[in-house]
Design brief:
With about 170 residues, the protein is an alpha+beta fold. Helices cover about 45% and strands about 20% of the residues.
Length: about 170
């Protein structure tokens, strides 16, 4: 098997893993799996108290990426200001689409989910599954906004909520 090009990720870098959100590369280890030596990124997801090992050769193929640029974060916040797009499809179909967007790791797609599922105080209650998807998308969005902006999660959450409340007003 040919050696893959040296990856652009290094220990102490923050990365986005599509299915789990923002994590930090703790180290790059070599591990023997099924008789083959593999170089692995060891990624820690502090909030979930989880450690993930990703083969370095497959990292970008899997969809792992560096943090979004500050410009992309601004685009995502601008997306939040837009009008919610409520599709008339069955909830199960929409829920599936929202789940795919959340797990895509694409910051703009996640911002769209937050925008579409956000409810202001004067709107009807969300169903349990709607609330779960909204909170998952909001968590992914705020964790990346926090990591890019160098703030804590609470500060990022406040920033995102201010944009959502300003839109509703």
């Amino acid at each position: 098997m040919p050696k893959a090009k040296k990856s652009e990720f290094r220990p102490d870098d923050f990365v986005v893993y599509p299915a789990h959100g923002v994590g930090k590369i703790v180290s790059i280890d070599e591990q023997e799996v099924a008789g083959m030596k593999l170089e692995m990124f060891v990624i820690s997801f502090e909030k979930d108290k989880m450690t993930l090992r990703v083969p370095t050769a497959r990292a970008t193929e899997i969809g792992m990426r560096g943090l979004a640029s500050p410009d992309l974060v601004e685009q995502a916040l601008t997306t939040l200001k837009g009008k919610a797009r409520v599709k008339r499809a069955m909830w199960s179909r929409r829920a599936q689409e929202y789940e795919q967007k959340i797990n895509s790791g694409d910051l703009l797609a996640i911002a769209e989910v937050v925008r579409d599922l956000h409810r202001s105080d004067d709107q009807r209650e969300q169903s349990y599954s709607e609330r779960q998807l909204y909170e998952a998308a909001l968590d992914r969005l705020t964790r990346e906004v926090a990591a890019v902006g160098g703030t804590d999660a609470a500060g990022a959450q406040k920033k995102v909520e201010e944009v959502l409340v300003a839109r509703a007003a």
